[in-house]
Amino acid sequence: MAKYVYSFNEGSKDMRGLLGGKGANLAEMTSIGLPVPFGFTVTTEACTRYYEDGETIDSEIEEEIFGKLKELEDVTGKKFGDLQTPLLVSVRSGSPFSMPGMMDTVLNLGMNDETAEAMIKLTGDESFVMDSYKRFIQMFADVVKGVDKKKFDIEAEKTNDLKQIIVNYKEIYKQETGEEFPQNPQTQLMEAVRAVFRSWNNERAVLYRKLNDIPDNLGTAVNVQAMVFGNMGDDSCTGVAFTRNPASGKRELFGEFLINAQGEDVVAGIRTPQPISEMKENFPDVYSEFERIAALLERHYTDVQDMEFTVEKNKLYMLQTRNAKRTAQAAVKIAVDMEQEGLIDKETAVMRIDPSQIDQLLHHRFDEEALKSAKPMAKGLPASPGAACGAVYFDAASAEAAFDRGEKVVLVRQETSPEDLAGMVAAEGIMTSRGGMTSHAAVVARGMGKCCVAGCSEVIVDEIAKSMKSGDIIIGEGDYISIDGNTGNVYPGRIATVAPEMSGDFAKVMTWADEIRTMKVRTNADNPRDAKQAVEFGAEGIGLCRTEHMFFDEDRISDMRKMILASDREEREKALAKLLPYQKEDFKGIFEVMEDRPVNIRLLDPPLHEFLPSTEKEINDLAQQMGISPEKLRDKVTELKEFNPMLGHRGCRLAVTYPEIAKMQTEAIITAAMEVKEEKNIDIEPEIMIPLVGIDRELAFVRATVEETISEIFKKTGKEIGYQIGTMIEIPRAALTADEIAEEAEFFSFGTNDLTQMTFGFSRDDTGKILKEYTDKNILKNDPFMSIDTTGVGKLMEMAIELGKKTRPNIKLGICGEHGGEPASVEYCYRIGLNYVSCSPYRVPIARLAAAQAVIRDKNPQQWQDR
Amino acid sequence: MAKYVYSFNEGSKDMRGLLGGKGANLAEMTSIGLPVPFGFTVTTEACTRYYEDGETIDSEIEEEIFGKLKELEDVTGKKFGDLQTPLLVSVRSGSPFSMPGMMDTVLNLGMNDETAEAMIKLTGDESFVMDSYKRFIQMFADVVKGVDKKKFDIEAEKTNDLKQIIVNYKEIYKQETGEEFPQNPQTQLMEAVRAVFRSWNNERAVLYRKLNDIPDNLGTAVNVQAMVFGNMGDDSCTGVAFTRNPASGKRELFGEFLINAQGEDVVAGIRTPQPISEMKENFPDVYSEFERIAALLERHYTDVQDMEFTVEKNKLYMLQTRNAKRTAQAAVKIAVDMEQEGLIDKETAVMRIDPSQIDQLLHHRFDEEALKSAKPMAKGLPASPGAACGAVYFDAASAEAAFDRGEKVVLVRQETSPEDLAGMVAAEGIMTSRGGMTSHAAVVARGMGKCCVAGCSEVIVDEIAKSMKSGDIIIGEGDYISIDGNTGNVYPGRIATVAPEMSGDFAKVMTWADEIRTMKVRTNADNPRDAKQAVEFGAEGIGLCRTEHMFFDEDRISDMRKMILASDREEREKALAKLLPYQKEDFKGIFEVMEDRPVNIRLLDPPLHEFLPSTEKEINDLAQQMGISPEKLRDKVTELKEFNPMLGHRGCRLAVTYPEIAKMQTEAIITAAMEVKEEKNIDIEPEIMIPLVGIDRELAFVRATVEETISEIFKKTGKEIGYQIGTMIEIPRAALTADEIAEEAEFFSFGTNDLTQMTFGFSRDDTGKILKEYTDKNILKNDPFMSIDTTGVGKLMEMAIELGKKTRPNIKLGICGEHGGEPASVEYCYRIGLNYVSCSPYRVPIARLAAAQAVIRDKNPQQWQDR
Predict the structure, then answer these.
(1) DSSP class of residue B119?
(2) Under a CB-based contact definition with an 8 Å cutoff, are residues B456 and B379 in contact?
(3) Chain A: residue whose CA lies nearest to B697
(4) B692 at the A interface (CB within 8 A)?
(5) CA-to-CA distance for B168 and B172, rounded, in angstroms?
(6) Rounded to whole angstroms, how far apart are CA atoms A741 and A726?
(7) Residue A504: pLDDT band by 50, 70, 90 thresholds?
(8) In chain A, positions 470-529, which contact chain B (CB-CB < 8 Å)?
(9) For the domain with range B363-498, which CATH number is right: 3.40.190.10, 1.10.10.10, 3.30.230.10, 3.50.30.10?
(10) How would CATH label the architecture of A228-329?
(11) Whole-prediction pTM value?
(12) Transmembrane ranges (chains A, B) (predicted)?
């Protein structure tokens, strides 16, 4: 017969699947000789059997439990229901994965009216015993029978007579459950075990598993352990401690304890615990033993441990140990320290850092003390990390002016557009009331490394009246707000911020990551400043250089507009000829910074109306300024207006309609590369990227335009340079027909923002609210604009890769959507075989780390399955 | 050795692939003993060899050609270059598929200075001989050497001296080609054969093949045939004739001839030919022989023949026969007549009608005579077939008022919206300056069977000034225009129209089609009127009943708006309760018309802002009317505004946010069905369709809402009816994850409009101009909104079917996009295994016919490959 119950001395930490996390660690501590109260674990397989057997516990398993109980009684010398040496136990669930929502803990199980009486006689401490019994009834009722704890608390306040309280508690139990409180400890035990098994399938647990892709058939284990008491007087205590400081990473015992208390008191927060260091005074011997055990556990687990312990009458008992959660700073310091200490190797050190956390290290953050007293007025989307505090301005010009006066500025808009760029540059942070995680504000802010809270729909922004409002709070121009791009919180008034420190440890870990990873990390950068920042962060090339932002500078927007307003090709070419030198200088600047690193430049992508004003007043002003009739301008604006600009006349469709734009851009790219090669002796091989392709012949058409232009330049100059032409895969049809598209493309770059928009039919500018609702209602696990939807969007990506390689086995594959800097997405990109990811400069370190972790996890998925 | 040249008596009509269409028919006519001038065909394989051999004709093939030439000389008793009996031949290309852009015909080949002289002596007819020689030089120069024909025509006008003209012609030939005009007939022949081979790969031919999926390696044949002369005097003539009238289908010889002329003169139109019936007088014997041959050919080919013939000195020669093109009316009459005559079976009769043509039969069309003198002022998209003539009105209210006054009206708008419905109902036809083939105007007009020209961007429509303008032509309110929904032409002024006749023959063919087809044909209908019309056209159910149009009636739009403006759920439910009875009556009306036919009802789909006004004035008016503050209304309008409404808060997303809307609609559907069942004793099993699903859990969420509502009704009434719940597949992700979606869906209905929009990233409202450019530039072969893009969109559909059936083998599959009425798409739907197509009422007959043809073609694709 299979074995369904293990004593603590029969298991080990590697039996997590069978014994659950808690049980495996209790067994491990027991096996290495630590003072763990004895007990046993009913396995997860018993739980599975329970469900297979129609939610009953097989009699053979019940017998096995009672057999182990007997062993427990023998080891402890105590006995269930015995009046001389009554055995009390704790019953705790413990699944292979930490799983909120399941039944947690029943303490003091084994007590009944008789044992309580006996214990009073034995200890002479009525208050301790009655307190324990009372707790037991309440916990049992709560976790086994689902009776609200509060029902008992109200009763407790009515009298001081401890015995009467017990009577009342049992009465409430009977009222609520229709049954007498069970007096038989065996019955109590089996009820508790069944309750743990049942809790595996309660609604919250099922949902949690569904959301976290945990199989339903794993089951939970049940840990039954002899009770020890931290509440037996001043020579007893209970506490939690870390082997190193989980906030700073400093190598020191860190934690707190509470004298004369049980574990739940520490959590409840009724009494204030003391720092662990003070234990030295109260329990000098115990403390030094604990120090020894902590060091031993850390060495044994080769990671910082988060421990629970109890001291009963000056004797130390270990109740739990597990790997500790930690801040980003601590994670980096601990990983590097432990590698230096020879405790772990570099790969393990790299795996110890959560890439999504390290963003914290690269940005300003709020001072923790100052934050404690702050109350948010609203919450938006955490669109770009960091914290910012400044005076509010509602338009770019005012923001710029304030910046010039030396003010710290937060730019607040309903939604930003390329025309707000100067204001965004001037601002410490940006807040918008509309738009999602990939709205203009979010994307640009991330690119600049500036804090941004987007889509904060609770706030009504009135750009004309220059005010923002949420509930009763009204903020006017010049008033201060503070925004947190990590949480999405918006606070009225000022909160102090702290600057980032890039410690030497951080640099060390990143170097290790670079040694491990095989996938390249590039950056999305449109100007030399961003490119330089990204190279400092370790970028190995540019994966996406957008050319549209370049046209918004004051000295060129006018020529851009003339180009758009041109009534024929000749006029358009004249305007383009004026833009050409600007574009060439843009690219030269970038090439100079990037040196011999690859640079991928995307041809003009946005619809042309983005370069024209939209309101009547702006149109009139611009018309006057340009010396044309407002009517002509208005006609053009109307002509270019689109119902769904996302799906309109943009991307390569512009190059099909106006090949002369693509020609000008190609000329700028190629001549810039040639000149920099000449001037700096750097070999540059630009990648020219044609966006929004959905049809093979569409790409062929634009490719022909680009190639013609290039060969004309080569002919004219008598010189040649290398170049590549490729496309974005951002339209579903491009992925579906990637074999055809690859005929004309030397590289694919996945534009997962647009690909996600079109695959889901979600406009990123409009669906902030919907996506929140969808994640709230568990329709979606993640915002697909943040982490690649591997089921749907991923299927298209994998299809595109397979088809593309069929046509062109060596096709270069990258990603330049925002997902390129999100850890899970980066790992996915590695798994499906991309050559590089590209992300905004501030995400480059995250991507480097995630790419290294992908390699390590891929080598041994079993070892690293618990993210 | 392979055989590369066939004499006419060696081939047959089944050798189309080897001999080309023309050659195969010449051989066939020869083999059944008709008077065909003798000749031979150089095969398509010789053409393939030509390319394989580096564009040279292998000497063995050349020898074979000269061998057959010898045979030709023997049969005709004439000889190349002979001064007594000079042989002249025609050289014509002929590929397996009719292919414009290829080299066509050289006549009189074999002439040179000497033979010309000799022929003058032989015939005594200098003018005939010199005319022939002149034509030969000109044609040879044109088709063999690419010299512009006009170069010669100018010369021809300079003198009347025939001999001098020849001298001049040869001089021009030399100037243009740098060579003397070749005098050796063998040289002439081989040059012509090579020219035909070369023309297979000229740019236009390659493009044509690419666009029509004709393999490049087929090659073209070359037909060499002894010349006969219709220009040898008044006892000679040439002509073309049909075995039946190709316009009316009447069984009568129909055609025209020209006395003393060569074939090209008929085409050139310099002289006016006489009706064929008059041949009886001029050539009584020849005519009766021709009648006999025509009848024989029709029987032989079992189809109406389009024949070319020449009479040389009272002797009849057949030069070509092929199946005739015909009008829709003729096609129907001929198919039915031939079936009655026992010439063809019903399947063949059904295949003889082009489904895309029969639309003509169901709508008004312009009087052909009246149309001849009309000149279009602009051309838009042929969005809904038919012709309309009426006074122009620029808003719905004026259109309605004019209609009430008894005027015929054409509604002209920049773009229509649901608020224009009443105006569209009142109008004969609709013209818009914006929007594509699936814009609101187009879709609604097709649904109503009204003529519509959409996206006519050449016309500037000023709705405020009430005028439309194109070039110099300005049309004001009340002025007449005429629009042609079959061509997209817009004409100023009035053109008479002709009403449709649904003849008995038409009904007969449709019955045959119904007997053959296996795929069901449903209709898209939102009201009893359309449903009734569709049933008359043969619809077997409703595949899409949109519920949104129902809310625009004056008596309910106000409650709809109250629902939208509700500040909480309670208020919303109150407004919904008022809408419930209206909805129920809508559905009852439809159920009553449809009786026991299946009815598929889609829950509310469009974004809510479509129900609110957008301009400041409209907002103020409505606010006053509703008794609310304009500010509140404006705030809501602003809140609901979306950047890309197509990808916004609509479809099932509405039902997720406001389950109470889905509840109300479900209640209306189910109680309506129950009441009609009760009242009429009809068993109704409604299909409830949840739109815009992209995520399995999204569908599960809404499905739960719908099912809860239904079980409440069943509980309350104590009665039950059958129903099905399913979804549209219109979001790429739904297709990609159809296995997951099918868990919750009993049917899939492909919404190919939206699926095409998102797969291509084309907003149908914005891309009319782009798509025109794309088809003009041959980037796209067809507008994918008209005919399903089987490569990309189709791949998603096939994937969805495969995945869906994996989960639910019996899942019901349909299509409700506009493609459901387009013949090629209908055939595609049959091939991929859909159970039904659904289309607007006026397209139902087309779909029925196309569905039947799909079955027939599928049984024997080889036989019916030439569409």
Answers:
(1) H
(2) yes
(3) A779
(4) yes
(5) 6
(6) 9
(7) confident
(8) none
(9) 3.50.30.10
(10) 2-Layer Sandwich (3.30)
(11) 0.82
(12) none
